[in-house]
Specification:
This protein is mostly helical. It folds into 3 domains: about 35 residues, no CATH class; about 55 residues, no CATH class; about 230 residues, MetI-like fold (Orthogonal Bundle), CATH 1.10.3720. The protein contains 16 helices and 2 strands. Strand 1 and strand 2 form a beta hairpin. The longest helix has about 35 residues. It is globular, with a radius of gyration of 27 Å.
C-alpha cells in the first residue's frame, strides 16, 4: 500500500492508487496516523527547536530590555535592577522628550526622507528594471553591465563629498533623496523578478495595441508587488537608519539633521540634554524620570527603533516572497 504523509488534511477525501492498482479512498482518520520517528530524528528535532528558540530570544531580548528600562522607575534603572520585568511602569520618559525642541524637527526630516526617498527609489527600480528586460533597448547590455560595476567600485568618501559639493547638495534636503534614487542591487532584483513573468501577457497586450508604458502600468507593476515591497523595505530601513550623509553634508544646517544624527549627538552629550530638558520644563515632576543619562539614551534609542518595528511585520510576507522569487535567476 502506498505510504502517506504524516500531516492531517482536514475535511478532505483523497483517492490514492496502491502499488497493486487498487484505488483507495483516504479520509482524515487515515491520514492522522503519524509516522514513527526514530530516536535520532527526535533528538535532531529537539536540538533544532531549542536552537531556534534560543536564537529568537537572543534577537528579541535586546529590544525588550531597552523597552522595559524606558518605562520603569528611573531609580531602579540607575541601580541596574530592571532585567526581565518592568517595575514602576510609567511613560514619563517619552513625554519628557517633547521638551527637546529639535527632536520633533529631526523626526519630521527622517519621515520625509524615508517616504520620499523610498517612493522615488521604488519607482526608479521598477522603471529601470523593466527597461533592462527589453531586448530592443539601445546598448542594453552595456548599460546593464555599467550598472552592475557600480555595485563593486566607488571613488571613496572624499571624491563623493567633493562631487556633492559641486552639485550643490550640501546643506540641502535633496542630498537625502537624489543619490539614493538609483539603487543597482534593487534594480537587479526587480529585473530578475520581471523576467519570471510570462512573456505571453505582454505579447497579448501589444497585440491589442497597448504601449510599453501601458503594459508596465497595468500588467508589470501590479504583478511585481512582492518584489517592490521587498525593495521598499530595503529603502525604508536604509533611509531611516542613515546618518552619515547628515553628519557630513549638513554641517551648517541643523534644521536638516535626521533623527539618527540627533541620536548620535544625544548619545555623546547626554548630560547637556538632561540640562536642556530640565530648563525647558521648569523642573516639572514629569522630568524626574528622565534625569538619568542612561535612561535618556534608552528612550531616544527606542524612539528611533519603534517605526521600523511597527512597519516590518506587515511587510514581512511580501519580503519573503519577493526576495525568493527575485533571486531565482542570475
Amino acid at each position: 500500500m502506498a505510504k502517506y504523509h504524516n500531516k492531517m488534511v482536514r475535511n478532505k477525501r483523497i483517492q490514492a492508487v496502491s502499488s497493486s492498482g487498487e484505488v483507495i479512498e483516504i479520509t482524515e482518520k487515515t491520514i492522522s496516523k503519524r509516522h514513527k520517528y526514530s530516536a535520532g530524528d527526535k533528538v535532531f528535532f529537539i536540538i533544532d527547536y531549542l536552537f531556534f528558540i534560543v536564537f529568537t530570544i537572543s534577537c528579541i531580548f535586546p529590544f525588550y530590555y531597552l523597552f522595559i528600562n524606558t518605562i520603569s522607575d528611573a531609580s531602579l534603572v540607575s541601580k541596574g535592577m530592571i532585567n526581565f520585568i518592568p517595575k514602576g511602569i510609567n511613560f514619563n520618559n517619552y513625554l519628557a522628550l517633547r521638551n527637546v525642541t529639535d527632536l520633533s524637527n529631526s523626526i519630521i526630516v527622517s519621515v520625509a526622507r524615508t517616504v520620499l526617498g523610498t517612493a522615488l527609489m521604488v519607482m526608479a527600480s521598477a522603471f529601470v528594471g523593466y527597461l533592462m528586460t527589453k531586448e530592443e533597448m539601445w546598448k542594453r547590455k552595456f548599460f546593464y553591465r555599467f550598472l552592475v560595476i557600480t555595485m563593486y567600485f566607488n571613488a571613496g568618501l572624499i571624491p563623493w563629498y567633493l562631487n556633492m559639493v559641486m552639485l550643490g547638495l550640501t546643506n540641502n534636503f535633496a542630498a537625502y533623496i537624489i543619490p539614493g534614487i538609483v539603487a543597482p542591487y534593487n534594480i537587479i532584483l526587480v529585473k530578475t523578478y520581471i523576467e519570471s513573468i510570462p512573456s505571453e501577457l505582454e505579447e497579448s497586450a501589444f497585440i491589442d495595441g497597448a504601449s510599453h508604458f501601458t503594459v508596465f502600468r497595468k500588467i508589470i507593476w501590479p504583478l511585481s508587488m512582492p518584489i517592490l515591497a521587498t525593495v521598499a523595505i530595503f529603502g525604508a530601513v536604509g533611509n531611516w537608519n542613515s546618518f552619515q550623509d547628515s553628519l557630513i553634508l549638513m554641517s551648517d544646517a541643523n534644521h536638516l539633521y535626521t533623527l539618527q544624527h540627533r541620536l548620535y549627538i544625544y548619545l555623546n552629550q547626554t548630560n547637556n540634554l538632561s540640562n536642556v530638558m530640565n530648563s525647558t520644563a521648569g523642573g516639572g515632576t514629569a522630568l524626574d524620570y528622565a534625569q538619568n543619562g542612561q535612561i535618556i539614551k534608552y528612550t531616544i534609542s527606542m524612539v528611533s527603533i519603534i517605526p521600523i518595528l511597527l512597519v516590518y511585520p506587515f511587510m514581512q510576507r511580501y519580503f519573503e516572497e519577493g526576495i525568493m522569487l527575485g533571486a531565482v535567476k542570475g
